[in-house]
Amino acid sequence: MKSPSGNVLIVEDDPDVREMLSALLTTEGFHTVAAEDGLEGLHLLRTMRRRAPETPCLVLLDLKMPRFGGREFRRAQLSDPTVAGVPVAVISGATDLEELARALGAVATLPKPIDCDVLLEVVRRYCA
Length: 128
Known about the structure:
Largest sheet: 5 strands, parallel
Number of strands: 5
Helix content: 40-55%
Oligomer: single chain
Number of domains: 1
Strand content: 15-25%
CATH class: Alpha Beta
Distance between the termini: 17 Å
Shape: globular
C-alpha cells in the first residue's frame, strides 16, 4: 500500500460513484473523505480546513445533487475565505460541462462516465 500523498474531498450523491472514486484514489495512495451532498461537503471542507494536516488538496464536486448541489457548494465555498482557495474539479454528465466549470472557477472537468486515467492525472496535479 502506498503512503497517502494528499487528502481529497469527494462530494457526490451517487453512492456507487462515491465508492468507486474513493476506492480508486485510496489504492493510489490518497486519503479520501466523502460527502453525499454539497451541504455535508461544505461542513467537511470547513472541518478539515481547521486541522492543517487534513486540509484537502482537491475537491471532486458533482454538480447535480439533491438538497445542496455543486453550484451552491461552490458559491458558499468561494464566499468563505478560509476554504475559498481549495481547488475544485467538477464532475458531471452535463453536455455544457466546460462552460459550467469555467463559470464556477473549477480547475478541471471530469465528464461522466469518469475516465480513471484522467481523474488520476487531475488528482496528482493538485495533490502531489
